[in-house]
């Protein structure tokens, strides 16, 4: 969800749309606190607030903090902000991919565990026990 919003922001910036309009569209993509924060920033920018003051609420939220810092640096043009938004989208996708891979690896362990518990006794009874019994039989026979 974050990646789609950041991609939308980058595309809007590259298209030359006004920042408040883009931020409102991006806020509609998010759920929870990031949506409210971006909507508040869009309102402040639309009212003509200074970029430093307008992006202040976004600095307090971890999902929008990096974007807010970049927006304060690039208050005059949107090109730098578009690159930051694209980077944020790539980071969000990588984070989701890493979490999905970790879940898949945990699922593999949980699936293999019952199989191991079933096959281990069979391996011991049918594979190891006859070999040990045969070795003991030879040892006892030679004594």
Structure report:
With 143 residues, this protein is mainly α. The model has no long low-confidence stretch (mean pLDDT 86). It has seven helices and no strands. The chain folds into two domains: 1-98, no CATH class; 110-142. Helix 1 packs antiparallel against helix 7, helix 2 runs antiparallel to helix 3 (33-46) and helix 6 (65-73) runs antiparallel to helix 7 (79-142).
Describe the structure using short key phrases.
single chain; 143 residues; mainly alpha; 2 domains; 7 helices; 0% strand; Type II secretion system protein; T2SS_GspF_dom
What percent of residues are in strands? under 5%
The total of beta strands comes to 0
User: How many structurally independent domains?
Assistant: 2
Catalogue the unreliable spans.
none
Give the ordered list of helices and strands: HHHHHHH
Radius of gyration: 29 Å
- Distinct helical segment count: 7
Straight-line distance between termini: 75 Å
Shape summary: rod-shaped
Largest sheet: none
Query: Which structural class is indicated by helix and strand composition?
Result: mainly alpha
For the residues shown, what is the average pLDDT? 86
> Which percent bin holds the helix content?
over 70%
Précis, in short:
With 143 residues, this protein is mostly helical. It has two domains: 1-98, no CATH class; 110-142. The protein contains seven helices and no strands.
Write the layout of secondary structure elements.
Blueprint: H1 2-15, H2 19-29, H3 33-46, H4 51-54, H5 56-59, H6 65-73, H7 79-142
Domain Type II secretion system protein GspF: 8-126
Subcellular location: Cell membrane
GO cellular component, one term: plasma membrane
């Amino acid at each position: 969800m974050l990646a789609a919003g950041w991609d939308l922001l980058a595309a809007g910036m590259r298209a030359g749309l006004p920042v408040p309009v883009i931020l409102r569209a991006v806020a509609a993509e998010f759920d929870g606190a990031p949506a409210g924060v971006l909507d508040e920033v869009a309102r402040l920018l639309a009212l003509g607030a200074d970029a430093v003051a307008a992006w202040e609420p976004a600095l307090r939220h971890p999902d929008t903090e990096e974007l807010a810092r970049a927006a304060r640096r690039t208050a005059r043009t949107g090109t730098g902000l578009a690159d930051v938004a694209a980077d944020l989208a790539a980071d969000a996708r990588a984070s989701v991919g890493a979490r999905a891979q970790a879940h898949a690896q945990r699922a593999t362990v949980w699936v293999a565990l019952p199989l191991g518990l079933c096959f281990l006794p069979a391996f011991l009874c049918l594979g190891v026990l006859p070999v040990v019994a045969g070795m003991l039989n030879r040892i006892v026979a030679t004594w």
